[in-house]
Amino acid sequence: MLVGTSGWQYADWRGVLYPPGVPQKRWLEHYGEEFRTVENNGSFYRLPKHETFRQWHDRTPADFVMAVKASRYLTHVRRLRDPREPVDRLMRMAEGLGDKLGPILIQLPPNLPYEEDALGDCLKCFPESVALAVEPRHESWWNDDTRRTLETHEAALVWADRRGRRQGPLWQTTTWAYLRFHEGTSRKNPPEYGDQAMRTWLDRLPDEGYVYFNNDPTGAAVRNARRFTTLATK
Q1: What is the pLDDT of residue 187?
Q2: What is the distance between the alpha carbons of residues 184 and 213, in angstroms, rounded to a whole number?
Q3: Which CATH superfamily is domain 2-232 in?
Q4: Closest CA to 174 of 138, 139, 210
């Protein structure tokens, strides 16, 4: 199981993950010294060039894995329609990661309801060698057809937690899992998660999977990723 955070460039992580004096241009290298994986959320807002992905490959340890969030052009502008061109462009760029390319995260807009065949038409545009994780956020997607589509394409349904509430069903559509922690309920150190909440998810997870903490303010994601790793090894 690989545990990390959603992104690595947050100013308030100084003193939490990044010691004073470590320049921002070296943050990824420092991040890779502690965590074996990261979820790249920046690619959602602006798709980096192939050369940038290649630089990230070269700056991280040999066993490092980077999950890549699909561009919003595919999911929020095109809204899964005519997916071939944006998928091909995404893959041409992300292939710069080489063997460090992890799952592609396809996060759907919360106002995008279920549309028959839309998800399947998108997933079949990706190379079979690429792991896919899908995070629908409109309740109309929770139906048998969505589940069959994910299973057919061996794509993981993203399990997500926000304030202690799961954000959808716990279908295991692949042999591995993809879990995202969006916001914990700690009163002392918001938006951190407590041990009980993390243990509950640990009991649900298979042996293989990816776990990312997206509760980045105040360095909560770093502290939780560290603690989750400790709990997972007990």
Answers
A1: 85
A2: 10
A3: Protein of unknown function UPF0759 (3.20.20.410)
A4: 210
